[in-house]
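FAQ: What does a ligand-bound record look like?

Like this one, built around uracil:
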Amino acid sequence: MEKINHGKIKPLIYKYLEILQSLGYTHLSFPRTLKKETEQSIEASKTNKLSDLSSSLNTSYQKITPKEKVDQELNLLKKKVENCQYCQHLVAFRTQTVFGSGNPLSKLMFVGEAPGAEEDQQGEPFVGPAGQLLTKMIKAMGLSRDQVYIANVLKCRPDIPKGQKGNRKPTPEEMATCLPYLLSQIRLINPKVIVALGATAYEGLTGKIGIKISEVRGKFIDFNGAFLIATYHPSYLLHNPSLANKRKVWEDMLAVMSKLQMPISEKQKNYFLS
Ligand code: URA
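The answer part, i.e. the structure of the complex:
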């Protein structure tokens, strides 16, 4: 339909009304049915607009859950990590970046130092031998990997010379460069407790280089409003599997469980005592 030009039509209507007036007309009447139809169509269009508005509110605001919101933001951050080019030597070496996995609303977050060979291949943290032990620890706490969040300070596997096997520790510089990504993850996930797995992860998180894990483990410190606790790295336990070491790590996990007000059974209390 052609658009009404109000500027042009107004003088014509006045002219028409003047003509009617000059002919003796004093009132204009519209058939009742037409008025009703007009009112109904105005009401209908108002209702439609309201229902359009409410359905758009439903889809764009009311239906998005807190988990979906954090997921969306984590996905944006993940994309940034995937495109990160800061450490050229790591970019050249990596198969892929390893962002993190688990429940984005978890109150418990585990942080390791960096992906190893298996993690670099699979794109998921802690999936190698150390990861299998971490999974056992999480299960012993009565949880599953899907209920916690797992990430590393470094998102790329530290490079090693060609032909060599194994993994190397990330350097303080590499960790400082990558730390903003982990801090953003922590801000979005907002865990109550963060467990630093090993001295290097603790150093990366706190910037306190040269600490002794035996001196800092088992003590909660404030970390941007969360409780940070360090424990031995699962790979340390794999190489030093004494009952005493297992019990130390388990006592750290019991401390985490009570900080999170999780139920602790008698059986759980007594793990690794004998
Ligand atoms: N060690 C880590 O610190 N992180 C991993 O993801 C795997 C092994």
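Follow-up question: can I read anything off the structure? Yes, for example: The two ends are 88 Å apart (CA to CA).
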